[in-house]
Structure formats: C-alpha cells, structure tokens
Amino acid sequence: MRPFRYERPGDPDAAIALLASEPQARFLGGGTNLVDLMRLGVEAPPLLVDVSRLGGDAITEAPGGGLRIAAGVTNSRLAADTRVRERYPVLSEALLNGASGQLRNLATVGGNLLQRTRCPYFQDISKACNKRSPGSGCSARTGDHRNHAVLGHSEQCVATHPSDMAVALTALEATVETRADGGERALPIADFYRLPGEHPERDTVLEHGELITAVRLPPLPAAASSRYRKVRERRSFAFALVSVAAVLTVSDGVVDEVRLAFGGVAHAPWRARVTEDRLRGAPAEEAAFTAAVEAELARAEPLRDNAYKLPMLQRVATQTLLDLAGGS
After folding, report:
1. What 3-state DSSP class applies to 238?
2. pLDDT (tens digit, 9 = 90+) per residue, 89-131?
C-alpha cells in the first residue's frame, strides 16, 4: 500500500491552493486514468485533490456562438448532447469510439485531455522510459513500437497520445480554459499539447496547480459536416492505430472549408495543415485528397515496425474526406 492524502475542496480556488502546496499532488476527476497509473506504480501522488464535485458540469451556449463545456462534464453526457451531435458530430463520434460505456460514464472532459500515453514501457516501472523517468532512456525505440509515433517524435520519446476526444477538438480548433493562482487563461488546443523534444515528461504546457475549467468550441457551421474514423486492433474498447477527425464543406465541386487532425500517430493530436492548405480551393475528388494527404505524410519518420501506419492513415483519411464530399 502507498499511503496518500485525499482532499475534497469546496471551490476551485481552494483546489488550486491545495495542489500548489504539494509539488507531487494531482487533481482527481473521474480517475479512469490516474487511478490505473497509481495501481501500476507509475504515479504515487502524496495528495489527491478531488475536483469532480466543484459544479463544473454544464454545457452552455458561449457568448458569440459555439459551446462552452465545463471540465467536469462526463464523456457520456457530452457525446449524447443534442447540440454536440448536430453541430459537432465529429466530437460525439470520437467520444463514442473512445472507451467503454462504463468508462465514459466516469471520465471527464478535463481528465480526458490529460490522459497519459498507453506505451507499455511507460506503464512498466521496470523498463527505461524518459516520459516516466527523464534521462533513463526510451525502451520503445528498439523494443515493441508497432503502435508508436510516426510523426513529430524525438530521440527521447516515440509514444503516442491516447485521446480520441482531443483529436476531434484539434480539428474543431477548440480552446482550453484554465485557472491558477496567477489568474485565468485561454489556450488554443494547438498550443496546449507539446511534442516530446528533449522533455517528453511534459505532455502539455500546463503549470503545476493549473486547473482546466472548460473547453470552448467555436461557432463553426462547417462542423455540421464532420466525421471521426478510427482503426483499432479490435472493435471493442481499444486505442487507435490511426484515427482521423475531418471537417469538410464543398461548393460547386470545390473544397470550401477543410480541417483535419490525426490520432494514433504522434505524441499529440496531429493537425494536418499541409493537407488543409493543399485542399482549399482544390477539386473535391479522390486524386486531390490522396495527393494532399501524401504531402502531409512526407514528413513522417516511421520506426522499424510501424511504417504500416502510413498507408493505413492514407487510406482512412482519403476515404473519410470522400465520404464527407459525397455528403456535401
């Protein structure tokens, strides 16, 4: 048994103050990831600060349009919300593809954003892992890495980000709202996550004691024409080998608006900006979609055993765009 202290503060400021008082403390939401890591010995926080009952569980219309989703909203509730299903179907689909129903009933939006990688070397404390123990090495580079990153990785880490929801939020250009002792800030999700570089232990730009309070979706009429597609090793609950979140609108056979993000291939959700730039104003046809995705994947650096992800992602992304173009 590893003893720890548990606190349930009555408001966000008290929660932030408690966490700031202990360098190794952790916020606790649904606990679907953190508790597992504690059982494995990967995490051993001396203090857990429960933020699941602070009242942040509303989905509201945002000023100027869009939606504001409080951090305590469960994945099940968000996926089922009529406004999300109609206006941002890619997000609802990503959530429904993300976990079992039991987990979605507990997992929160804030916690989902902060999931740690499911790399087996990260989860095995007997193995070297720079993400878990900086400077110890990366066992995955020469070990079992068939499910690992092909884009944006470094010598220090080749792990992938596990969240499906975050991939959809990246395509939607969501904003993450946070609160800390120094005040509040709003972070575009593109700036929220980090690539590993020399410090793979840091998944996000959050500072210790900084609490996610909400996610804001922009007013985006094009998002009504969106889709999430995921390839996994089994149809039941499993993490993505590759996934695609796409928003596409077509006018007179020409791509009008496109937003594309990939999952399962990088340390963070990967925004496919090269593909997007090539497609805007291009004909909405298979050849153009294929060439634009190929241009994005030209930047890939597959490892010994995971080059299969590139043709797989190519096909999934192209077919997803074709499906949306047909719907338009």
Report:
1. coil
2. 999 999 999 888 888 999 999 999 999 999 999 999 999 999 9
CA distance 247 to 175: 17
| Segment 137-155, tens digit of pLDDT | 999 999 999 999 999 999 9
Encoding tokens for residue 184? 């509040």
Task: Name residue 265's amino acid.
Answer: V
Report yes or no: 260 and 272 within 8 Å, Cβ to Cβ. yes
In this structure, what token pair is assigned to residue 128?
Answer: 């070297």
Contact 208, 19 (CB under 8 A): yes
Whether 200 and 154 have beta carbons less than 8 Å apart is answered as yes
Residue 133 CB contacts under 8 Å (≥ 6 apart), including other chains:
none
Burial profile 7-28: b = 16 or more Cβ within 10 angstroms, e = fewer: eebeebeebbebbbebeebbbb
pLDDT exceeds 80 at position 63: yes
Give the list of residues 6+ apart from residue 191 with CB closer than 8 angstroms, or none. 205
Q: Is the pLDDT of residue 239 over 70?
A: yes
Using alpha carbons, select from 47, 56, 66, 45 the residue that is nearest to residue 6: 47
